[in-house]
Amino acid sequence: MFVCGKQSCILTFLEWINYFKMHKDIMYLYLSFLKNKVVN
């Protein structure tokens, strides 16, 4: 667990957004995989 100030939390959040933008295709594949798993 960690406590963070406003600045670092926002930075981490933006880093996550950038990561998802860079790995959009992987995320879509993963999400559709999860959807199929739930449906079946």
TrEMBL record:
<protein>
    <submittedName>
        <fullName>Uncharacterized protein</fullName>
    </submittedName>
</protein>
